[in-house]
Amino acid sequence: MEFKTITDAITVSPQICPDDLTAIKEAGYRAIICNRPDGEASDQPTFEEIEAAAEKVGLEARYLPIVAGKVSDADAEDFGTALTELPGPVLAYCRTGTRSATLWSLSSAKTLEPSDILSKTKAAGYDMAGVVRRIVNGGKTPTDTGDAKYDIVIVGGGAAGIAAASSILQRRQGLEIALIDPADIHYYQPGWTMVGGGVFDASTTAKTMGSLIPKGVHWLKSAVAAFEPKDNAVVLDGCRVVKYDRLIVAPGLKLDWGAVDGLVETLGKNGVTSNYRYDLAPYTWELVKGLKQGRALFTQPPMPIKCAGAPQKAMYLSANNWEEMGVLDKIDIQFMNAGGALFGIKDYVPALESYVERYGAKLNFFHNLIAVDGPARQATFKVTAPDEEDREVTLDFDMLHVTPPQTAPDFIRVSPLADAAGWVDVDQATLRHKEFDNIWSLGDVMNAPNAKTAAAARMQAPVVAANVVADIDGHGAQLQYNGYGSCPLTVEKGKIVLAEFGYGGALLPSFPKWLINGEKPSRLAWLLKEQVLPPVYWRAMLRGREWLARPEKISAS
């Protein structure tokens, strides 16, 4: 007997025997549901035998037999009704547990998000890919057969998705391309650090999505609910199905604000802010200007996160402003880093450490933010240092800049496209999916071991575009991605440490050292960040003009 718990209320199991009922009762279950028809196999006990054994130990039993592969909408409704009528928790069983898991999934579709259903059944060991359309459709069998069909479907209208669409059109006109994204506004997220530092106005970092999607690309303004890669299909909210010849997956990642207890309730007030949100970055600047003394905490969660340097960039720009205001010596600046190093590429650390010293900031490694009490202005961290007992530390604060934990979006993590950690599983050179050869991915959502930055997406877009077009023409991959990422570390107003690197931490500078030495703070690098990169983003990258993007060709040999 094998218990496979889905929720506290329902567990499913392969076939049970009368002798198992005592153990089931002792495990805390109060009722059982049989979803296997009698006589399906010669060695199978009848429901009458199971029911008699259940009655002896004080368990209620119900018989809802389902023929394998034929779970009807009515069956799912009956299962849901049984769960409300029977005392819980309930154990449901069939031959393997799959029918029972399917019945629960369909009966829960009206009350739970599809990603929640898929993640719970996946954790229990059951793949619901075969009924995902019905789950998305509220547990009902879809009747709409008018599926849209495109040469290329792109999921995600952020930097990576729009850049990929534009780069493809630069190489091949006439393709039927659809871009799926429910958002009305597209943001230049690299600019939010500058907003929080009082350099940019927030409005300059936002444009309407409709103004940026390339001409000729069909914009499907909807959210993705699930993928059916074996059927070349994407299922949208509302159960609309979009078919494709080739798929590009680039929805970015999920900022998991709710993973920190109490954070959501206090964001934007009580001195709690974040440059990772458009509406909060201006509040960062308000707090910086208003703080004359006290303690300022800057947090960094476990990797991976988008723009790994952003948490400390917020600290440096804030400290530089306090320095200019003449109050730096009255402010206790602390950097609370869940990791064990200031920056992942050691070549840039000495320059950064000099600014940590200049601003009198204290570095606290292995400190991960787990809770915030906004009204009390207290932040609690879990400390997991090597060779030490885990402990918790609570600090008072006057200003708290939070970088939220980050994961792949729910609909990606539970999909057949994901690796064990939940990221889209690609070849790190060609960015083609390792299992499904008509799928590519780029941007923050895929699992190549590179920094998750806009500069990385700028380099990845032509790689994916060239390789997709080559595949259409029947050729192999043409370009390869070397892991390039760039992190302009704003250490003070007017100077930046321009970190540029690829796979394995290899330095990949775009400029000769005599012009910009990335290992030293540079005025030219600041001008690049402030004046050059925004127009490169809006006018080049998103329009398929691949300036500052030179991917490596794959050698013919």
Describe what you observe in this structure.
It is a single chain. With 557 residues, this protein is of the alpha/beta class. It has 3 domains: 4-136, Protein-Tyrosine Phosphatase, Chain A, CATH 3.90.190; 149-253 and 408-553, FAD/NAD(P)-binding domain; 257-407, FAD/NAD(P)-binding domain (3-Layer(bba) Sandwich), CATH 3.50.50. 29% of the residues lie in helices and 22% in strands. It contains 16 helices and 28 strands. It is globular. The model has no long low-confidence stretch (mean pLDDT 92).
List the helices and strands and how they pair.
Layout: E1 4-5, E2 10-13, H1 21-26, E3 31-34, H2 47-57, E4 60-63, H3 73-85, E5 90-93, H4 98-107, H5 114-123, H6 132-136, E6 148-155, H7 159-171, E7 177-180, E8 185-187, H8 192-196, E9 206-208, H9 209-212, E10 218-220, E11 224-228, E12 233-236, E13 241-249, E14 254-255, H10 263-266, E15 272-273, H11 281-290, E16 294-300, H12 310-325, E17 331-337, H13 349-359, E18 362-365, E19 367-373, E20 378-383, E21 391-396, E22 399-401, E23 406-407, H14 410-413, E24 439-441, H15 454-472, E25 479-480, E26 485-492, E27 495-501, H16 523-540, E28 552-553
Parallel strand pairs: 2-5, 3-4, 3-5, 6-7, 6-13, 7-10, 13-24, 15-22, 16-17, 16-22, 17-18
Antiparallel strand pairs: 1-2, 8-9, 11-12, 12-13, 14-23, 19-20, 20-21, 25-28, 26-27
Protein name: TIGR01244 family phosphatase
Cofactor: FAD
Domain Beta-lactamase hydrolase-like protein phosphatase-like: 3-110
Keywords for this structure?
alpha/beta, globular, 5-stranded mixed beta sheet, FAD/NAD(P)-binding domain, 29% helix, 7-stranded mixed beta sheet, Protein-Tyrosine Phosphatase, Chain A
